[in-house]
């Protein structure tokens, strides 16, 4: 069994690049509101945006640090959901990039958004963005999951207005419980045990 470094990626289209905003359902050109299941994700009041051409959203100063050309967003009290299936049993490991739109319109059209991360009915954490925030890495060590079982990973917006958080590079994997060390690890362990044994023998001879 492979170690945590070789854990399989469970998320489909975590970078939101598989479907162009210009071709997506609910397209407005450089951004889209594709309600329902599209390209690995299910959107409810959430969407896709092009990180370089969506000037109606952020003028000429988009947040920096996103990956690729597109990312997803959770607006208002929208939901962004993906079903994942655990390949092994163990602790779920999550990571993603988080950014926000700047406050160029005032009122509720900005990036002061709070959102929750859920796994089925388990709340894993609550996060907040500030208007104009560049992308930053978020991580979570989630609950234990069981091999072969499916779970809904959910990003849920909390703002009562039109505030928006951006999400990119969403990743999920399982850190296997009771993982067997890889051959290279075994080799290092055996070498270490051998060195300890040699030291103990020398100490025994010195005190004989």
Automatic annotation (TrEMBL):
Pfam families: PEP-CTERM
Lineage, opening ranks: Bacteria, Pseudomonadati, Pseudomonadota, Alphaproteobacteria, Sphingomonadales
Family annotation (InterPro entries): Ice-binding_C
Gene3D superfamilies xrefs: Galactose-binding domain-like
Ice-binding protein C-terminal domain span: 179-203
Protein name: PEP-CTERM sorting domain-containing protein
């Amino acid at each position: 069994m492979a170690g945590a470094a070789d854990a399989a990626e469970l998320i489909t289209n975590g970078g939101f690049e598989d479907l162009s905003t210009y071709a997506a359902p609910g397209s407005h050109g450089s951004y889209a509101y594709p309600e329902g299941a599209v390209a690995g994700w299910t959107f409810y009041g959430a969407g896709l945006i092009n990180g370089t051409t969506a000037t109606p959203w952020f003028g000429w100063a988009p947040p920096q640090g996103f990956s690729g050309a597109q990312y997803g967003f959770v607006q208002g009290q929208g939901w962004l959901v993906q079903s994942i299936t655990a390949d092994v049993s163990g602790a779920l490991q999550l990571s993603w990039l988080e950014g926000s739109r700047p406050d160029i319109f005032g009122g509720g059209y900005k990036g002061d958004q709070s959102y929750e991360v859920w796994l089925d009915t388990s709340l894993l954490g609550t996060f907040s963005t500030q208007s104009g925030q560049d992308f930053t890495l978020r991580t979570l060590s989630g609950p234990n999951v069981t091999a072969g079982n499916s779970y809904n990973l959910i990003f849920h917006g909390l703002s009562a207005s039109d505030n928006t958080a951006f999400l990119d590079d969403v990743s999920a994997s399982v850190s296997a419980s009771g993982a067997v060390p890889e051959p290279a690890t075994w080799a290092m362990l055996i070498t270490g045990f051998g060195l300890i044994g040699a030291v103990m023998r020398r100490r025994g001879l010195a005190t004989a």
